[in-house]
Amino acid sequence: MNIEDDEIIVPNEPNANDLPQSVISTSFISVSRVSTVSLDFQFHPISSFSNLSNASTLQPNFRFSMAQQLQHFQDVNFINPISDILVYSNDLVLNTDEPLEIKEKTNSKTHENLLSFSIKPLYDKIQINTSVEIPCIVTFKGDNTDLELIEKYRQGLDLIFVVDISGSMRSGKIGLVKATIEFVITLLKDFDRISIIGFSDSAFIYCPLTVMNEQGKAKMTEIINGLGPTGGTHIECGVRAALHMLADRKVCNQVSSILLLSDGCDNDTRSVNNRIQIAIEEFKPRIKGSYRMHTFGYGRNHDSFVMSLMADLTNGNFYYVENEVAVSDAFANCMGELVALLASNVQVSLTTKNCGIPFKLSKLYSNTGDTIFTMPNVFFGDKKDSVFVLDFEAIQENFIGQKIVPIEAVATFTLKNGEKIRKIAVLELFIVGKDEKVTKDKSVLLEYYRVKGAESLKQIIEFADAGKFAEAREVARISEEEISNSEVVGDPKIQALMKDIKDSKKRIMSKNSWISGGRAQLSSIQNSHFNKVAMSNCMAYQNSMQFKYSQLSKVYIDSIVTTINYPKSHIIQRNFYDTPPQSSSSSPTF
């Protein structure tokens, strides 16, 4: 908030009847603008602290000079005094979630038939007398169902927004985040629930999990409008509050996610990683069902290590939001995944079989590097692939005409209706003579170069983390050259990968460029390409639902910008977009 030359901020005495029972007193002071006149600058503290005995580590201090008070009111964007806000402590019992009747919605197709599982080789034939390396892919493919049907039969969501409301979120940052959450609410139905938690030096629970009917949405709008930045950054406190809420809720919805957004570093960066891991492990046995934590690192100054860690530990995604325009895309991609979910908890086990021909499984591009590994969630209209490589020695002539099965894959996963499924796929290869034509499957080749590029990005990150920037740039150069000479260089996804590898060289020029957004960008991009996940800085892997939500979010945010007159602390500039957002083919209904 900027103070003009002819204006000054003057505090008014708060009305105690308007205040919630569990709040930090200095957060609830109304302000008004008046002309510069003679000043009678008085501060009126709230007298009752009966409910704050063990709720917060903040110590109120009412001994402000005039200059300090002016600075205080410049920096603080005051919290909405309408809602019953709780200052989080471990002693709270958070079982006040609104009741919800869980009903399974089914369509005419069985869920299992909506998902295929297969193995595909680069070559389906092997010529005799030739040593050969064969990349292969393990593929899950989700049915390309109509978007209206996906939304109609989707599962109910429990979403907990954990929003950084520290002082660094002032000006347009918090305004756009608020508008984006409002957009997400327009997508929700009366079988969804959300809660909003803000964190600065402490965590503030603005509401329990609330059903998204008309009344619930109106309540959320009230709360969102009151969010404002103040204080430091205690990430662990926000995480604990969200985990505690998941653990204590009386009813668990079908899909549960924590969406955490921060633009800074924790107050204690040296211990935050360990504290976050302890918190997640502590609540794990108390939380019924599964959940994912999706983290959104805003700007160049956030801690990409801890944001990635939180996502990795809960099988979520880390979204790097480099600038304001990327906020709505990041949330649209996240919501598109949640709504279009088809299968989760995907695990694959590969077994080599004795087929009478010498070979070895020489390379496996998986999250474990082992023959047992997990794969990302699968969505409607989506395809997820893992890559492995087989090396065959020269095959003798007496094998001509035979079919061999060198690999068996067993997959287990949980369908959207909660059903646990086990499927088996085998790799079949045919032995042919030297003169028979062998063709390549370019879809396999594309996935092969995708994971090779993603592996290079991982190596670049490791070198840069160790301060070996010259070595990191050399890895980028070699990878870019190899992919540019491949047969799939013209594919749009490969083009996006090459662009990101080329861009990585700018991010690893020095320690300063690396810590000022470079690491966050490469961590997000590497995850995007390796797991085929759409990010705001890599949209190549969007599924159809994500694309729809991305378009709708731009229309919605643009309408907010053009029709709402934000107070000065909440102004959202139109130049956040390099080009005006594109409207979808039909007008959205909110």
Quick recap:
It comes from Stentor coeruleus. This is VWFA domain-containing protein. Helix content is about 35%, strand content about 25%.
- Give the beta-strand count: 20
Instruction: Report the uncertain regions.
Output: 1-83, 562-590
Biggest sheet record = 8 strands, mixed
Fraction of residues in helix: 25-40%
Q: End-to-end span in angstroms?
A: 31 Å
Q: CATH top level of the domain at 149-322?
A: Alpha Beta
The named CATH superfamily of the domain at 149-322: von Willebrand factor, type A domain
Strand coverage percent: 15-25%
- Under the CATH scheme, the architecture of the domain at 149-322 is 3-Layer(aba) Sandwich
**Radius of gyration over C-alpha positions, nearest whole angstrom:** 27 Å
Q: How does the overall form come out from the CA principal axes?
A: globular
Q: How many helical elements?
A: 13
Structural class per helix/strand content? alpha+beta
CATH topology of the domain at 149-322, anyone? Rossmann fold
- On the 0 to 100 scale, the average pLDDT is 80
InterPro entries: CLCR (IPR051266), VWF_A (IPR002035), vWFA_dom_sf (IPR036465)
Domain VWFA: 158-335
Protein name: VWFA domain-containing protein
Pfam families: VWA
